[in-house]
Amino acid sequence: MANPGQANQIMTIVKDMIICIQGEQPPEVHEDTLARAACYISNPQNSSYPSTPLNERDCVQKILRILRSSDATDNDVASHFTIYYNKLALLKIDPQLRHSLIGFLLALADKSLSSETGPISGSETTLSGASGDFLSRQVTSLHRSSSSHHNGFGQSSLGSTKGMSSTMAVPDYTDILHAKKALDPSQSMALSALNSFIGIPGKHLKKDFITGSFKLDPLNTKALSKAETGMLLRLSELGYYYDRVEKVADVTTGFNPIGIMGQALICKLRAELGAFRGEVSLLADELKANSSSGKEKKGLLSLLSWYVKPLHRMQWLAKIADKCQMMKGGELASTLYNMLDNGNPMVNNLVRELLIAICVPLGRMISKWMLEGGITDLHGEFFVEALNDVGPDRLWHDKFRLRKSMLPKFMPLDLADKILKTGKSINFLREVCEMNDLGSNHDKLKDAMDKNSDQIFSYVQDTAWHAAVEMCYAQTSKHVLDIMVGPHKLLDHLYGMRRYLLLGQGDFVSILIQHMKDELERKGTDIFAHDLSAMLDAALRCENAQHEDPEILNHLDVVLQTPFPGECGWDIISLQYTVHGPLATMLEPTMPTYKTIFRPLWRLKHIEFLLSIKIWKTQMCNAKKLRLLNPVIGRTTHRLHLFTSEIMHFIHQMQYYILFEVIECNWVELKKKMVAATALDEILEAHEQFLANIKEGCFNGQNTDKEQYLDSVFENIIALETWQSRFFRYCFQELSAREEVKKMVAESEKKGRFGITAEQKLQRDQDFKLFEQRVHLARRNLEDIAGTYEKAVSGFLLTLNSHVNPNLQLFGTRLDFNEYYKKRDTNLLKPLTFEHLRQSMCTIRPMIHHLAKE
């Protein structure tokens, strides 16, 4: 229900709008029309006027077109109607009531419906509804009041509006219309300028629909001076910027910002435009009041002195609106934030107000994400993105991520990362851990975030909003960390993977290889997983691992890869650590890295097994047995022993570097970080860095020169084991042949023949010559293997010495501690200046291709 003062204002505006539409009519006709308007608004369904399907704005535009077409020589009637409508829009009344009133006025203005108007029935005094009650009371008061003159505008000045008297007099409508016809040229020009302020064409100014600016009407500006036309064009500039802002603030144009943050900006722009229209309406009232009271009239010069400040503000509003067209989310906030550092205090305050408006929905999205783990983002404007296609097993690593394009410029990346991790932790606890108790004092944090959302774009992060974000992140991170370290034993599982997958439990690895040595030598197609599982259990029971937590040991298993032709057990057998539940969500992405690291460590164990069991042990066992063949094989076995010692030094240094300097040292650093961690992500990041360092230290990163040289070294060691087996087989065949001859001689002596036949002696001589040829050929093959090995080691040392990592340079120095390879390779003698480093790298490439061909 409107108060009496507001009801009087509404009745005054409605009367003036009816006068603008009907023109010169007797007072009884206008009063009768006003009563019909009250009846129509009270019950539009039962009225003889059809309801219009148009919205309020379209109705106003159609009325203005009708008024302009009915009075083509004078547009003052349409201008007055626009001013009255703006005054009506500023009043706080029901929008549906105002829409119904404008619909009635449209029906009244339409010529096809004007003939259907007639006297209404006696229902004016029995109107129902809030709007009908106060309008019916005003109609009654109109009949009881005496006739007196009224000017049709509220008595107001710039910045203030006085309420009207509750007792209203019926004005002399004929005098009002004659007064409108008798406007002097200066007042008419001022009225045209006022209309242009809000983008409405007038008597002297028309709108150019191509450029959007105003231009002079040649028919009505012939009598104006150049100064007057110049002032009109200068004043119309304000309307040009008004139209630009209104175009962005209107959602039907398609240029408006998008999303809820865009809606907040649109509402703020509409509020600015509404306040500006209010000021223009006050100017129009003051102009009308001065005209009716005979005071000094306000002309174009007065408007020029007034419009400077509104023009500056409207220019910046237009600039802001143009830059924010069709933007959304963080991109919209960043655009406004870039305009904040301005030397003009008015511009700073304006941009700050707009930023505060759009940060309110942003703050609500952040608080909902951090406290509830929810994202309501229909327009894709939040800087946290959820991938619905990702399952719970990849929730922690892949389901949520930052949308960098929507990250506001005033939001630091580390703060955005904390916001992301907080909401991610909430979803992890709810979906994976199935916990609904997500912490306390969430209501206080939510209130602190929502009430202080205007502090999001603060230059320093010491505001109440930032403190609430930090507290929410700390509490949630500690809760997740306690859950994973406590009940789920995250640190124990990491330690278990380090001991078994990274072969840190030395006695376990040695016992496992002893149990599996027969299976490791078989073809890949002849090995079965159940046999290996039994051997793994036996190895665990034989060493210190039997005192380990059974929950840790139950996750360890042996897996077989699909064998390719020619592969043996060493190539397809690997260890696997299986995790489930929340641990799988955290650690599953690192399992491929563990598998990648396990392969070079397992291959190094394979080479160590070949050296210790098959090569060195075989040499030691056969040295005494083949003593009789030393005159023939002495030089070859001596070279073999030297070559074996060279290989053993390389492999032992390689094992020490990888197992101790790489794995053990990085594990010590990881333990320090895990003890000092305050959030789960700190442990996971330290663990990932630990694996990355080991992967690089094990020479199993990218396909670089070091890896290729190391593969060549291992291949030559395997070739040496094959060569040695064949060489000793030839030696034992010769030894067996000699023993057989001795047996034949002994048997002949017993029979009295004393010796062997000439044929047997000839056969023995031929076999011996064949053996000598084989020994000679074997020695040449051994030299070839040793030469290829030496080239591979030299290239490996060159890559180590030219590496930027000082640890690798020291490792290369230990491998060539007596400068054996340096003396045999001139590239290793050159100082590592940039020029020599470049030349060394040019030398490495052909060596790699040569080794690959061999």
Automatic annotation (TrEMBL):
It is found in: Cytoplasm, Cytoskeleton. Its main location: cytoplasm. Pfam families: GCP_C_terminal, GCP_N_terminal. Residues 144-164 are annotated as: Disordered. The keyword Metal-binding does not apply. One of its GO terms (cellular component) is gamma-tubulin complex. The lineage of its organism: Eukaryota, Metazoa, Ecdysozoa, Arthropoda, Hexapoda. The keyword Transferase does not apply. This is Gamma-tubulin complex component 3. Residues 490-821 form the Gamma tubulin complex component C-terminal domain. InterPro entries: GCP (IPR007259), GCP_C (IPR040457), GCP_C_sf (IPR042241), GCP_N (IPR041470). Belongs to the TUBGCP family. Keywords: Cytoplasm, Cytoskeleton, Microtubule. One of its GO terms (molecular function) is microtubule minus-end binding. Residues 194-485 form the Gamma tubulin complex component protein N-terminal domain. GO terms for biological process: cytoplasmic microtubule organization; meiotic cell cycle; microtubule nucleation; mitotic cell cycle; spindle assembly. It comes from Drosophila kikkawai (Fruit fly).
